[in-house]
Amino acid sequence: MTAQPAAQPRTRPVAERQARPPRFAFSWSRVLLAVLCGLVLLFLIAPVVIVIPMSFSAAKYLSFPPPGFSLQWYENFFNRSDWTSAMIQSIRVAFTVMILATVLGIMASLALVRGNFPGKDLINAVIVSPLIVPTIIVAIAIYGIYARLHLVQTFFGLVLAHTVLALPYVIVNVTATLRGFDIRLEQAAQNLGANPLQTFRYVTLPLIAPGIFAGAVFAFIASFDELIVALFIAGAQGRTLPMRMFEGLRLEIDPTIASVSSMLITFSVLVLLSAELVRRRGRTEA
Amino acid sequence: MAVTARRPAVGAQIAVDPRMRKLYLRRQAALFGLLLPALLLLLVLFVYPILRLLVTSVYDQGIISLEHYRRIVEVDVYLRVMRTTFTIALQVTAICLVLGYPLAYFLSTLRARTARLLLILVLIPFWTSILVRTYAWMVLLQRQGVVNRWLLELGLIDEPLRMMYNRIGVLVGMVHVLLPFMVLPAFAVMRGIDRDLIRAAQNLGATPLQAFLRIFFPLSLPGVAAGSLLVFILALGFFITPALMGGRTEIMIAQLMEDQIRTQLNFPFAAALGTVLLAVTLVIFVIYNRLLGLDKIFGGDVS
């Protein structure tokens, strides 16, 4: 029983007190700080924003501001099969990875939070380590064994490798929601006659849904944006979008990338917004 | 991870009744079964390949030898790659610190709602593909790029500056990618600092600067240290930005590894380079774990 109150997020009261910080008196140092921070934020956001008008440029070369409006780079993208097939391949891989990582991740998270077995700390460490070990190491290590397993240049091989990288994101997010969750709700369901599967389906799953959603989104993006592992094991046939973009940037800058980039930026903003909405809904329900 | 420490007490209690104990063990076995698929995947495609990489690195033509490591420290070209990698990682960390600390501090002093809004400006690039952002910087920094054009039109320079295919391009691109990794943990820690402590210090006669330096700054250090170590670790293994925006003569360790495998076909040497990179990363990571704990890294808290 003693574990229950401690499992609640302990930072809540502090965060609430911080919700209304002290009003600062006007001072020049604060104005200076605000200006400096404005510049840093500009540095962060400007390159992302500038790509969008450039993608509608009527010029043959990259120029800013664009001399006129045109959809030529979008046309170029959708008319060229090397671009569209790379995009489709990336979506297929990332979607499969998302499903696989989310299912395996939910199962592992339940075990890691509820279970009590020897070596749990070690297992925890192994599970998060793909986030820390440089991707180039993971890439060459997997490349090293894939040659013998005949998994190089296969869809399945790339999916499995990306799942290794995506899994920690799901587990970190799902275990976080599982820990902040009152286990007595599950006990109550079981006392009322639910079997473990029903308990999971009707009690646990809805309550941890925000964590699962966040984890799944992370997993999708981890695979969709991944270049280095794909570079080693995907091969020309299964070329992903990041690989095609990398080729398009390596020798000379292909302006078609402006249109791909704009679509990807729009996509990430939409993802960010939906994650924020889910987070808010999760908070009001809790 | 803190939760695990409390569990044995429950287990010990249950151990008293043999029937309860049997139920408990069966439940634990079922839970372990849930873990198995993920664990198996990681063992086969992560732990084993990396262990094999380490073993490969100490073999040379079938016999155990440190030949590959000897080459790393004795051949000038490779030594220079190591030096470049560490220098760039340090420079990137320093720049992220200088830019990120004031930003995190400023955001932490704002109302929660305003801070969240401004944080979106940090999160949008954070969620955007590195390739997209590298592309944007290439457009901005190239010889006929946006920045050069504007500087020329303003009359600030007479001829275009070289800002790409050299150290400047690599630093700008890498700082842009890694700055959120500094700002987010620093902000999370700073937001948790009790502002009443600052008020108390000021009531006791400290000037605002003294209160900042002696109360706020030391309390913010865990977040800053975590951010710095994270940025440093990630910078060491960087590939995309230096490959696209760096010079031909100044390459980083990840580029050398890629080149060794894809063009030189020298897997053992790449494995040795990987081992060095891994060792450094793990040492820093252990320090990181002591400072802030594993689960704080990519936790959903700040997103």
UniProtKB/TrEMBL annotation, chain A:
Outline the extent of the ABC transmembrane type-1 domain: 87-275
Query: Domain of life of the organism in this record?
Result: Bacteria
- Pfam families assigned to the protein according to its UniProt record, in alphabetical order: BPD_transp_1 (PF00528)
Q: What is its main location?
A: membrane
What is one term from the GO cellular component aspect held by the record?
Answer: plasma membrane
**According to its record, how does it sit in the membrane?**
Multi-pass membrane protein
Q: State which residue ranges cross the membrane.
A: 31-56, 91-113, 125-146, 152-172, 207-236, 256-278
Q: Can you supply a Gene Ontology BP term from the record?
A: transmembrane transport
Q: Does the keyword Transmembrane helix apply?
A: yes
| Alphabetical keyword list | Cell inner membrane, Cell membrane, Membrane, Transmembrane, Transmembrane helix, Transport
Q: List where in the cell it is found.
A: Cell inner membrane; Cell membrane
Q: Which PANTHER family match?
A: INNER MEMBRANE ABC TRANSPORTER PERMEASE PROTEIN YDCV
**Family named by the database record:** Belongs to the binding-protein-dependent transport system permease family.
UniProt name for this protein: ABC transporter permease
Native source organism of the sequence: Thermalbibacter longus
Organismal lineage: Bacteria, Pseudomonadati, Thermomicrobiota, Thermomicrobia, Thermomicrobiales
